[in-house]
Input
Amino acid sequence: EEGLHAPAYPWEHEKLHKTFDHNSLRRGFQVYREVCSSCHSLARIPYRTLVGNIMTNDEAKGLAEENEYDTEPNDEGETEKRPGKLSDYIPSPYKNDEAARAANNGALPPDLSLMVKARHGGCNYIFSLLTGYPEEPPAGAVVQAGLNFNPYFPGTGIAMARVLYDGLVEYDDGTSATTSQMAKDVVEFLNWSAEPEMDQRKRMGWKVMAVGGVLFALSVWVKRYKWSTVK
Ligand code: HEM
Output
């Protein structure tokens, strides 16, 4: 069964002449860390990729150091614990899928790194999903025990309950953390995690258009020049 079709929101960062809003990315990463990361991994993101667009080098180093990683095994095959480095990846909340399911009533919280690209509807779908839990399921809706009603989720019964509530996080830039603001920020952040090269790609696209445009105009002029003597 199809879920309710998500409305198309006017995402600024999707426009060809716009980039990601880096303040929004920073807030979105905070939402991921404080809310989503207790259940969802972000396994494709090393700390180093956060530097410069979401936080400073020192901030990213500090975050990495909050976690412990195994050292390379020595000759006896033993490992030790060491603090994280910028080259380490953001750790997953669970040891493996079995542990993840055990903690979530049998459901597996998927990795969020590529989620914006993996789901039909992308940003619109995830925003709608996060903000679309009604107080009560509509009259007549059948909701399986352990599931939550969400009209945007295919099948409408989702193992993830509503997680975002007004004021859940405190943003350090003073932005008011409403449910929809947090959803917008975390979705923009998840779009960045799925396509960190997007700003670059758009910039390159404009350069290609500019240089290509000049070369094309030149070729038209040369063609006319060469053929100008032919009647
Ligand atoms: C599924 C996002 C927080 C548990 C999902 C899905 C997304 C998502 C996009 C996939 C839906 C689909 O398959 O189409 C988020 C975001 C969060 C968040 C952005 C933070 C703002 C949490 C938390 C938990 C959780 C805190 C656990 C308490 C789950 C589970 C599923 C899921 C169990 C699988 C649902 C199912 O297949 O029925 N989440 N999530 N999520 N999430 Fe979350």
Q: What stands out?
A: The mean pLDDT is 96. The helical segments are 22-34, 57-65, 97-103, 115-118, 122-131, 179-194, 198-227. The beta strands are 68-70, 81-83, 148-149, 157-158. The pocket of protoporphyrin IX containing FE is lined by residues 31, 35-36, 38-40, 104, 107, 109-110, 115, 119, 126, 129-130, 153, 158-160, 163-164, 186 (CB under 6 Å).
